[in-house]
Structure formats: structure tokens, C-alpha cells
Design a protein that fits this description.
Layout (H helix, E strand, L loop, with lengths): L22 E6 L12 E6 L2 H16 L1
Length: 65
């Protein structure tokens, strides 16, 4: 699941790829970008299609209330 995308603080920037394994994975900055580089980390949560459909259904219920 190698993906590289520039990030801009405060903006959502979609990235499209097809994962091949479920789970939570740490993502890291791949470019030496400044003094805070070592602290830059995030996570991506890969869910099965069924789990994602359940998530969407729960979100829709929450919005309807």
C-alpha cells in the first residue's frame, strides 16, 4: 500500500488506492520537511466492505437524530 500525497495543514486531500489487507496502519511523512518531521505521524484504518457499510449506516442514523 505505498501511496505518496502532499499534505496541507487544515485541508482534506483525498487519496485513492486499493488496499489488500484490513487493519490499522501507521502512516509516516516520507520527506524531510522541517523541524517537526519526526513528530509527523498518522493512521489509516482499512475495513472490510461489510464493516464499512455498517459504519455508513450508523453514521446515517446519527445524522437523522
Amino acid at each position: 500500500m505505498r501511496v505518496k500525497q502532499d499534505a496541507i495543514p487544515g485541508m482534506e486531500i483525498p487519496v485513492w488506492f486499493v488496499p489488500n489487507k484490513t487493519g490499522q496502519y501507521e502512516i509516516a511523512c516520507s520527506q524531510l520537511c522541517g523541524i517537526g518531521h519526526f513528530r509527523m505521524r498518522g493512521f489509516v484504518n482499512i475495513q472490510s466492505a461489510a464493516d464499512f457499510r455498517n459504519f455508513l449506516a450508523e453514521e446515517a442514523k446519527a445524522l437523522a437524530q
